[in-house]
Amino acid sequence: MCEDCKPGNISRRGLIAGGLALSLATPLASQAFAQEAVAAAPVSPEEALQRLVDGNARYVANAAINTDHSLARASRAEGQQPFAAIVSCSDSRVAPELIFDQGPGELFVVRVAGNFISEEGLATLEYGVAVLGIKTIVVLGHTACGAVEATIKSIADRELPPGHLPSLVNAIRPAVYDVMGDAPDDLLDAATAQNAKLNAARALSAGPILSGAAAAGTLGAVAGMYEIATGKVTFL
């Protein structure tokens, strides 16, 4: 029997060979696992929304799976195919990819203070639907929204804020007026939720691109409220 083959006698050559095999096997195994973990693209608005629901549940449970953003980086350079659009507030505490536990290239995000849909935002969503094939639009309001709060204050004071801020106030004002008559216990939360609902409805009714996709059953839109303290999204 050769010296290297005797029990308990591991040669330097064997150690090198074994280490090389392990170093090659580890990234290959990781790559295979990553490929298996990639979910198939949703084919319906309902499937797309469920994927967001599931992702938010992982985020709330602190069990995110989209943590290695280097995976598929090269393939993302070739193009994008997001499955959902998120119209969210610019608030720094609201990060859609984290909230829904989705990786780069999976969400098409439109952000503006107060999460309303402007003409430019509408055009952006049309591009997402017509060119990128997104299946659902989520208009995401959130607790303690400063833009909605500023709108409520402007109405109460009967005074517009300075600079270009009136454009935000005027866009959000209809939602505040809608709920003021009901005298809700929390006017800020009620107005924020109504603002998300109004803009989700606008997305579905905007013709011809978005309304056409909705009529064909290939696009859905829903309003949601993000609770900053818990991380949970409640769909309205």
From TrEMBL:
Protein name, UniProt field: carbonic anhydrase
Cofactor note: Binds 1 zinc ion per subunit.
Principal EC category: lyase
Record PANTHER family: CARBONIC ANHYDRASE, CARBONIC ANHYDRASE 2
Gene Ontology MF terms in the entry: carbonate dehydratase activity; zinc ion binding
Gene source species: Devosia limi DSM 17137
Family: Belongs to the beta-class carbonic anhydrase family.
DNA-binding among keywords: no
Catalytic activity: hydrogencarbonate + H(+) = CO2 + H2O
Entry keyword annotation includes Metal-binding: yes
